[in-house]
Amino acid sequence: MMTTSKKPEEPFTIVIVGDKGVGKTTLLNRFGQSEGAVMATHVDNKEVIACFWDVLAPSLSGYKDKLMKKADAFLVVYDVTKEKSFESILEWNITMKLKTIEFPFNVAVSKHVMMMVIGSKNDLEEKRAVSKEHGEEYAKKLGAIAFREMNTLNFTKEPFLWMLQAVSLRRKFPNREKFMEQLIKEEDEKSSKNAQS
Ligand SMILES: Nc1nc2c(ncn2[C@@H]2O[C@H](COP(=O)(O)OP(=O)(O)OP(=O)(O)O)[C@@H](O)[C@H]2O)c(=O)[nH]1
Ligand SMILES: [Mg+2]
To answer: For this UniProt entry, which segments traverse the membrane (predicted)?
Structure first.
């Protein structure tokens, strides 16, 4: 009997947060789901599965704390036309750190939060209140591993597949510095491959 597919590892938990109306439900709808969506890809010939959860969906309100604690990464969404939703990403960042921190409190062993910041509604250019440059710079300052702008009514899966690769790489490199080094190395390799082809 031929079995080529290897057993997948435990699925990753990716939690989506952001103010009311920024487009969290719209984002998941695009995956054909409303509260949570499953996505799979292959990394190093191994199947990697992630569940994306909108913890602010009413049906998940009872699981919010549990899901946030279990999160391997967060997608923090703001609306590029709403300054207030952008300011809120700081509060979301603090909330996710508090929810994921390990007790007894020990900074050295506490989980470093992985976050991707997403600016939604970039199709509404005439209403834009936060520039892309400012969004990207601020995301970096808060320690985000990636920043994207998108129209959540019509986006590609690329940023989410990228996130799956990043969380899977993090499992291999639990140390944040080593992980960031490797992430940058792999990005460079990818872009030089693309430049050659
Ligand atoms: N033009 C445009 N409209 C969007 C985009 N994303 C979401 N919307 C619209 O914004 C509104 C709010 O989107 P939702 O997906 O319900 O926002 P939410 O984050 O789930 O909001 P809550 O459930 O209240 O927390 C809807 O009318 C969407 O159609 C986008 O990228 N561009
Ligand atoms: Mg919603």
So the answer is: none
